[in-house]
UniProtKB/TrEMBL annotation:
Modified residues (4-aspartylphosphate): D56
Entry GO MF terms: DNA binding
Protein name per its UniProtKB record: LuxR family two component transcriptional regulator
InterPro entries documented for this protein: CheY-like_superfamily, NreC/VraR/RcsB-like_REC, Sig_transdc_resp-reg_receiver, Tscrpt_reg_LuxR_C, WalR-like
Domain Response regulatory span(s) in chain numbering: 5-124
Source organism per UniProt: Glaciihabitans tibetensis
Keywords associated with the record: DNA-binding, Phosphoprotein, Transcription, Transcription regulation
Every HTH luxR-type domain range: 152-217
Domain of life: Bacteria
PANTHER family referenced in this protein's UniProt entry, alphabetically: TRANSCRIPTIONAL REGULATORY PROTEIN NARL-RELATED, TWO-COMPONENT RESPONSE REGULATOR
CDD domains: LuxR_C_like, REC_NarL-like
Length: 220
């Protein structure tokens, strides 16, 4: 199998060097480039076409949120790199804005090397690294939702009954294996449904499903 190609974006050179060492310690990961600000990150991603971008939130020239939005907008729809936000704080309002811009989750900069490696693998496989409780904490603090009948009707109209069932399970932060067990289907089938749901709702990642459902009060 081809290694997972990774770009690291952070304005602290020492931090980037440390992350590079972590990446190079895993045989299935490959460090392919880095950038010191969001504007440079957009160019590096276009040049190297990585699978994963580890993106700092706060940087000069262009921050990680706008850089994530630009990367998603400029990428081939069939090959959008997955962005993992790097943050110093567990409860960081900027994380939600990055997720809305297309990020697939976040990890804190004090994460262990083992956790970071596993997070990269999970996101590359289509999972997210925003834990359900962390999601709830962030949304409760920064994105109070209110029920929208129009949005609820739109979701019902766009999704098949099975897709709606999978949507609600994914919105609660369940893994593919947990969804498969709850819906009595295979994990492969779950992945197919999740991909269809993302496409129909115009979302970029599973964690955006959580935010979308919460902000539109679609969870009972």
């Amino acid at each position: 199998m081809e290694p997972i190609r990774i770009v690291v974006v952070d304005d602290q050179a020492l931090f980037v060097s440390g992350i590079k060492m972590v990446i190079e310690s895993a045989a299935d990961l490959e460090f392919v480039g880095s950038a010191r600000n969001g504007r440079a990150a957009v160019d590096v991603v276009e040049d190297h076409r990585p699978d994963i971008v580890l993106m700092d939130v706060r940087m000069p020239v262009m921050d990680g949120i706008e850089a994530t939005r630009e990367i998603v907008k400029r990428s081939d729809p069939d090959r959008v790199p997955r962005v993992i936000v790097l943050t110093t704080f567990h409860r960081d309002e900027a994380v939600l804005r990055a997720i809305r811009a297309g990020a697939s989750g976040f990890i804190t900069k004090d994460a262990t090397p083992e956790f970071m490696i596993e997070a990269i693998r999970l996101v590359h496989a289509g999972q997210s690294v925003l834990a359900p409780q962390a999601t709830v904490d962030l949304l409760t603090r920064f994105a109070p939702g209110s029920r929208s009948t129009d949005t609820d009707d739109r979701v019902i109209a766009m999704l098949s009954p099975r897709e709606r069932e999978i949507f609600l399970l994914a919105a609660r932060g369940l893994s593919n294996a947990e969804i498969a067990a709850a819906a009595f289907v295979s994990e492969t089938t779950v992945k197919t449904h999740v991909s269809n749901i993302l496409a129909k709702l115009g979302l970029q990642s599973r964690v955006q499903i959580v935010v979308f459902a919460y902000e539109n009060a679609l969870l009972a």
